[in-house]
Design brief:
InterPro entries: ARM_TT21_2nd (IPR056832), ARM_TT21_N (IPR056833), TPR-like_helical_dom_sf (IPR011990), TTC21A/TTC21B (IPR040364). The protein is built from 28 helices and no strands. It is mostly helical. Among the domains are: 142 residues; 103 residues, Alpha Horseshoe (Serine Threonine Protein Phosphatase 5, Tetratricopeptide repeat), CATH 1.25.40.10; 85 residues, no CATH class. The chain is globular.
Length: 509
């Protein structure tokens, strides 16, 4: 399995793990078959098909995989090809159950036979990247070459991504690195330290990787993220410059450039960098809805008063809606429309989100994320209603909606937006400032309950949501004359945390 230790394959695996499927395909084209050799060609093609599926082109992937199945020279990889075909079939809007049963039958038949080493390794890698950990684990145990660096690294990544980290996880990565400086193992070890927020060892591991191989672009990306976690902004900027020498349009690096320019320095030039990033994202990651929504959510959370940031967020969300109109995309577009003052469109989008299958009455049996999307859809609708002029009767109806939501979904109280809406309702109903402040204070406590934002990361920025926090701070300060020092203290707490993460932004409240 020497081909599995290819630095090129390690980088492809990285981009897939990070959900940059278009980037992974592009890198495969750039590296070419020469980087993995004939032995790794089937592994390469299987990953290509997987990326194509994740970009919504399952029919194209099936054609490629069926050609591989008919190619006798790729017989060793039949199990991984069948698993890839199964993934492709499961991604179809209308699943062919009969074809799926036939694939399962063939997979089961191969399991009862001696599985070729290379094919088993590729199949395990594929299942790991698809987060089918329970299927990947027994297949990994079938591998006989359990002492080489590729196996050790794969074992470490399986434990890491499945959440079953133990002392052996780090030991597996260390042994793989000691054997032949396995790039995959370096990245896995750094990721383990990242999860533990051990930034010093994370940086040390990545620097060791770059000393061994200075052209591994993902190492620069993760090293830049480590500097950002520590808020060492100038160091992060220097690393981004080095990475740009390897690839000038690397998407994560471009985005970190934007973060540095816009959020940290407060430079208006950051908006131009963002426009270039979005152009590159829409080109390279075409049809990658999950990335469009992730970046769109982040931009919405930090847009504040900058219309150009909102515009770029809407470009990504519109692209996501063009792929599939799910509740997450509809709610994000609704929030952006509301921020621009288009209450009518915001209300229509929120209503469509409720009707898209995430409404309260259809949530039984859904997972927690689906359930929260349903709650958010109703809360967003109510927020749109409160943005319009309402008479006493309408305000009473809104209050009844919130009470009903609380009775049927007790966990809605764990969402800061719920308490913020109670404050807005009290304000619109001319309730005492003390009552308004009480709701806002609870909203702030709930917002900060699960994360104190001690490190900087894209995920923390999304959950921090500076845009909504600044709105809350504005409303709190409006009650300061009546409430006094407590209101000022809470507002100061909010703006201090926001400024810590967005030092380049100025707030005139």
């Amino acid at each position: 399995m020497s081909e599995a230790n290819s630095p090129a394959l390690a980088q492809i695996h990285y981009w897939i793990r990070e959900d940059y499927f278009g980037t992974a395909l592009r890198k495969m084209d750039e590296f070419g078959d020469r980087e993995v050799g004939r032995e790794g060609e089937c592994h390469w093609k299987t990953l290509r098909a997987f990326c194509i599926v994740r970009l919504g082109r399952s029919s194209e992937a099936m054609r490629l995989l069926n050609i591989m199945l008919r190619d006798e020279s790729m017989a060793e990889y039949k199990l991984s090809t069948l698993h890839a075909l199964r993934i492709a079939h499961c991604s179809e809007k209308k699943i062919d159950r009969e074809a799926l049963r036939e694939l399962d039958r063939q997979i089961q038949t191969l399991w009862s036979q001696q599985i070729p080493e290379r094919g088993a390794f590729t199949a395990t890698t594929l299942l790991l990247l698809d987060r089918q950990f329970e299927r990947a684990r027994p297949l990994l145990d079938k591998l006989s070459s359990q002492s080489n660096s590729s196996f050790l690294s794969l074992r470490g990544w399986l434990e890491l991504l499945s959440g079953k980290v133990s002392q052996s996880t780090l030991e597996n990565f260390d042994r793989a690195i000691a054997l032949d400086k396995n790039v995959e193992a370096f990245l896995g070890k750094a990721h383990l330290f990242k999860i533990r927020q051990n930034i010093i060892d994370m940086e040390s591991t990545l620097n060791s990787l770059l000393n061994a191989n200075s052209s591994v672009l993902p190492a620069y990306v993760e090293l830049a993220k480590a500097s950002a976690m520590n808020r060492h902004w100038e160091t992060m900027a220097e690393i981004c410059q080095k990475a740009a020498l390897i690839q000038s349009d690397c998407l994560p690096i471009l985005f970190l450039d934007f973060v540095y320019s816009y959020l940290i320095l407060g430079d208006i030039q950051g908006e131009q960098i963002l426009a270039e990033f979005v152009d590159a994202m829409l080109l390279t990651e075409a049809s990658n809805q999950s990335q469009f929504l992730r970046i769109g959510s982040l931009l919405a959370s930090i847009a504040l008063d900058r219309k150009n940031i909102t515009t770029q967020a809407k470009r990504l969300v519109d692209a996501a809606l063009g792929i599939r109109q799910n509740s997450q995309a509809l709610l994000l577009k609704s929030s952006l429309s509301l921020a621009e003052g288009d209450i009518r469109q915001a209300s229509q989008l929120a209503l469509r989100a409720v009707e898209s299958g995430s409404n309260i009455e259809n949530e039984k049996g859904l997972n927690n994320e689906d359930n929260q999307n349903g709650e958010r859809a109703v809360l967003t609708m109510i927020r749109c209603q409160l943005a319009e002029q309402q008479n006493d009767k309408q305000l009473k109806e809104i209050n009844q909606q919130l009470e009903f939501l609380q009775q049927t979904h007790s966990d809605v109280k764990e969402q800061s937006l719920f308490h913020y809406l109670l404050a807005l309702l009290a304000k619109r109903g001319n309730k005492p400032d003390e009552q308004v402040f009480s709701h806002l204070n609870i909203a702030v406590d709930v917002h900060f309950a699960y994360n104190q934002y001690t490190i900087f990361s894209e995920e923390n920025l999304i959950s921090l949501n500076p845009s909504i926090l600044v709105e809350i701070a504005e409303l709190i300060l409006k009650s300061a004359d009546s409430v006094g020092i407590p209101a000022i203290r809470v507002a100061d707490r909010i703006l201090s945390i926001v400024h810590q993460n967005c030092p380049g932004k100025q707030f005139f409240i």
